[in-house]
Recover the amino acids of this structure.
């Protein structure tokens, strides 16, 4: 597995928030992907969109509830088409399977299409340690491979890079003259990778869907690299999580309608590629061997938990990242592992361990936008809350998310809210106590230092100060007046 | 006594069953699509084909519109001669010296080779009889400025051309050359994605569980927005795609 940095969520997000270039890059996910997504929904009508979501969700519910059956059906049909199916319980097993295939076939060069699961396995490192040359061929993945980084978004892995940074990388690694013209850079990548596609011994792809009925692997792409990886080399290895299976070919239609629209706002991606076994005898080209590696790597833990099973319905469109106020500020790398954003905040703790990633379920304001945009209607806020609950109730000290002072504050808050007289008294005292820290109606700092005890909050934002009159008082004095009296007159809350 | 370890598959599936708290067997509720037999699929096919035939003019219009939106250059050819001159002129204008085309029935209806030859353009056909020519074929494809194919289906809903690579139809002809021309006839036309999958399922079951090794939906040119979300057309696949629509 790649290095797990989920423990550093808070310090990493502080660094990210202060990075102006990252902020500019992140501003594009809302204006680009998300606004295009909205346009597509308006185009088909929100009612039709809702029907599609319901249909897709019900397919996922049924498949995951009977996952063993569909995996077996998939296995039988891939085998019947002449392919090989491998089952891997964890990253080590999956990597060993691919390494073995590479070794047995004297593979020297591998071209890869985009695969988040292979990021999860850190497969490139394993192959490179064997002396195999590995080339990421999706433009975004190629860029971050050159930069020796990890993806920061499910769909646009190099989202965090500016064109100047990409220009510098291409110039440093390929010895081409520096240019920050985006079209020219894409052409440079095309030329650099063209020979690799044609000389590769093995192509590796992920899978967006696996069709049990026919034993078919489906990938949804735009650049054409996925088609080349699955056509040109003599071996094709597909690697994917076990949750990607769907029962029938017929089920694909609704997912092809939902996924591109949710991911990039396209009606359909440039390519949908469907692979069923290796090249047949009379085919003009295509790989001689087809291997499908189906990976668990912690997914059965999610499957076993009825509260968290629906995280496995995810089709990795990234819509929840694009809408998330937290992701939009901290970016993908702060999440510290392969899957960022709201879905990452659920999946990562389940795959790397709750105690390693206990801060991730806190990385949400629970605003619910992720749930609204999810094409398979995953209730992300509910799961985030359930993970928080698990952490709060955990007997393991290392998993406990709440500190002693957090708990005391929560208890004090509960006591105050339960006793109106105490609340009113403390409000009076508070109004006096806040005076030295107040400016423009906000509570910020005393002099230049943060407030003791709540500096975690006030370091980067101010608290609203207590108003001159509480809502309770306004209610009693003002709003109860007859409707013809302008209530606004008594709504002056001071400052 | 130790438990029999079983194959990796058995171990894996047993672990999935444990997670689900269920024992081996059919799904908890039946899945209607998987229970359809050949005659039901066939009836659905007849109904679909009849419906699409009745809507043909409208579907052609819808296909052209959706294809245009997705980046195809759509040319509605009035007759085969017009299709031939469009393709030949395009190749000439782009300075293409060699084209590669698949071996498909549509090229009997639209005999391109003579016109291309007259224009001084070399035409390579994907060989169907020479089993030693795989390398030669690949070299020819790489050396071609244009790849020309027919379509197995054209989807009005999405503006997609669907290609099923097989004998005479290379996977690479429509992805390696910088220009792809797809010739679509009225009989390739289907209304929706559902129609394509229905027809594929029918073929699959009719052929005893064989649906061919590969299938591609092509919807516009190759594209990326991986650098600063700026759209660039033509990364690893063709930069320019033309749909010649006959019918």
């Amino acid at each position: 597995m790649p290095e797990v940095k989920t423990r550093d969520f808070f310090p990493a997000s502080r660094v990210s928030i202060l990075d102006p270039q990252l902020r500019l890059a992140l501003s594009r996910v809302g204006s680009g992907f998300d606004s295009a997504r909205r346009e597509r929904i308006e185009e088909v009508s929100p009612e039709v969109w809702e029907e599609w979501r319901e249909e897709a969700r019900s397919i996922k519910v049924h498949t995951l509830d009977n996952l063993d059956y569909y995996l077996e059906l998939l296995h039988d049909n891939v085998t019947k088409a002449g392919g090989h199916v491998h089952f891997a319980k964890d990253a080590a097993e999956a990597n060993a399977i691919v390494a073995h295939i590479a070794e047995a076939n004297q593979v020297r060069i591998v071209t890869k299409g985009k695969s988040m699961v292979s990021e999860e396995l850190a497969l490139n490192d394993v192959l490179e340690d064997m002396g195999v040359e590995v080339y990421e061929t999706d433009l975004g993945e190629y860029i971050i491979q050159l930069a020796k980084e990890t993806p920061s978004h499910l769909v646009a892995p190099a989202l965090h890079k500016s064109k100047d940074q990409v220009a510098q990388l291409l110039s440093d690694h390929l010895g081409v003259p520096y240019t920050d013209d985006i079209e020219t850079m894409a052409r440079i990548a095309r030329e650099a990778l063209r020979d690799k596609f044609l000389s590769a011994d093995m192509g590796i792809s992920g899978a967006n869907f696996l069709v049990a009925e026919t034993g078919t692997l489906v990938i949804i792409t735009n650049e054409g690299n996925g088609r080349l990886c699955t056509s040109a080399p003599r071996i094709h290895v597909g690697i994917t999580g076990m949750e990607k299976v769907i029962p029938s070919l017929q089920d694909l239609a609704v997912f092809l309608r939902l996924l591109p629209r949710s991911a990039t706002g396209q009606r359909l991606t440039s390519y949908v590629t469907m692979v069923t076994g290796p090249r047949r005898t009379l085919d003009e080209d295509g790989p001689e061997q087809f291997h499908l590696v189906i990976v668990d790597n912690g997914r059965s833990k999610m499957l076993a938990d009825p509260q968290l099973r629906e995280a496995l319905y995810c089709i990795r469109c990234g819509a929840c990242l694009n809408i998330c106020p937290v992701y939009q500020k901290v970016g993908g790398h702060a999440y510290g592992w392969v899957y960022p954003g709201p879905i990452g905040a659920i999946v990562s703790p389940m795959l790397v361990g709750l105690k390693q990633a206990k801060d991730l379920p806190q990385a949400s304001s629970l605003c619910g936008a992720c749930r609204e945009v999810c094409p398979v209607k995953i209730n992300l806020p509910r799961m985030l809350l359930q993970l928080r609950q698990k952490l709060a109730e955990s007997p393991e000290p290392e998993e406990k998310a709440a500190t002693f002072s957090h708990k005391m504050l929560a208890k004090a808050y509960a006591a105050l809210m339960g006793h109106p007289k105490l609340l009113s008294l403390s409000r009076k005292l508070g109004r006096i106590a806040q005076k030295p820290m107040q400016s423009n109606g906000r509570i910020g700092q005393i002099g230049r230092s943060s407030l003791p005890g709540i500096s975690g909050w006030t370091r980067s934002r101010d608290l609203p100060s207590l108003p001159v009159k509480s809502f309770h008082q306004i209610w009693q004095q003002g709003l109860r007046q007859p409707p013809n009296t302008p209530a606004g007159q008594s709504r002056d809350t001071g400052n | 006594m130790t438990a029999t370890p079983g194959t990796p598959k058995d171990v894996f599936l047993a672990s999935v069953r444990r997670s689900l708290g269920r024992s081996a067997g059919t799904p908890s509720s039946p899945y209607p699509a998987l229970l359809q037999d050949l005659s039901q699929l066939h009836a659905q096919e007849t109904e679909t084909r009849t419906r699409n035939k009745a809507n043909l003019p409208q579907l052609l219009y819808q296909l052209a519109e959706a294809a245009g939106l997705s980046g195809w250059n759509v040319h509605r050819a009035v007759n085969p001669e017009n299709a031939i001159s469009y393709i030949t002129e395009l190749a000439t204008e782009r300075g293409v010296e060699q084209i590669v085309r698949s071996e498909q029935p549509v090229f009997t209806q639209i005999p391109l080779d003579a016109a291309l030859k007259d224009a001084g353009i070399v035409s390579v056909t994907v060989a169907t009889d020479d089993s030693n020519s795989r390398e030669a074929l690949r070299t020819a494809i790489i050396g071609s400025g244009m790849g020309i194919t027919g379509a197995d289906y054209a989807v009005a809903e999405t503006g997609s051309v669907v290609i099923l690579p097989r004998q005479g139809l290379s996977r690479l002809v429509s992805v390696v050359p910088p220009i792809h021309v797809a010739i679509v006839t009225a009989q390739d036309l289907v209304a929706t994605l559902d129609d394509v999958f229905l027809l594929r399922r029918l073929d699959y079951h009719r052929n005893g569980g064989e649906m061919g090794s590969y299938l591609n939906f092509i919807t516009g040119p190759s594209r990326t927005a991986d650098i600063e979300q700026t759209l660039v057309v033509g990364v690893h696949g063709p930069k320019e795609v033309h749909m010649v629509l006959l019918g």
Q: What stands out?
A: Chain B has nine helices and twelve strands. The radius of gyration of chain B is 22 Å. Chain B has a mean pLDDT of 94. Chain B touches chain A through 81 residues (CB under 8 Å).
